[in-house]
Amino acid sequence: MGSTNPDRIPAIQWRRQSETLGEMRANGWRLTSRCRTCMLEMVVNLDILILLKGEDFSLWNRTAPCRRLYCPGIVDFWAVPHPRALAMKLAADWPPGVPPRVQRSA
Ligand SMILES: [Zn+2]
């Protein structure tokens, strides 16, 4: 990606590089989740998530229920793709020019 500041690269370009959990792990991404209501932040353990969902599972544009007791909120997923410094929300359209993949359910 040349000399461009990695923190200025838009999410859709990162999605082009890493669509699946397996690709994110291979590329050294760090993931967190954050609740929109109570702001609870949690580390997403990629190894465990891959065991549960499989390497081909994608977290892009997904949400999940908050896991804090009695919180009705939903969480978004955030990532710090290597070599970025700042977290970005895992929200982006499908990158143009990338062939669609078959989403395997796990
Ligand atoms: Zn919450």
Would you mind describing this structure in some detail?
With 106 residues, the protein is α+β, with helices and mostly antiparallel strands. It has one domain. Helices cover 20% and strands 21% of the residues. It has 3 helices and 5 strands. Strand 4 (74-80) and strand 5 (88-89) form a beta hairpin. Bound molecules: zinc ion.
Domain count: the total is: 1
Structural category is: alpha+beta
| SSE pattern, N- to C-terminal | HHEEHEEE
Oligomer: single chain
Report the strand count.
5
Could you say which overall geometry the principal axes of the C-alpha atoms support? globular
Averaged pLDDT, please? 92
Tell me the number of helical segments per DSSP (H or I, 4 or more residues long). 3
Uncertain runs are: none
The ligands found in this model are: zinc ion
User: Could you give the distance between the termini?
Assistant: 33 Å
Major pleated sheet: 5 strands, antiparallel
Strand content: 15-25%
Radius of gyration, Cα only, in angstroms?
14 Å
Helix coverage percent? 10-25%
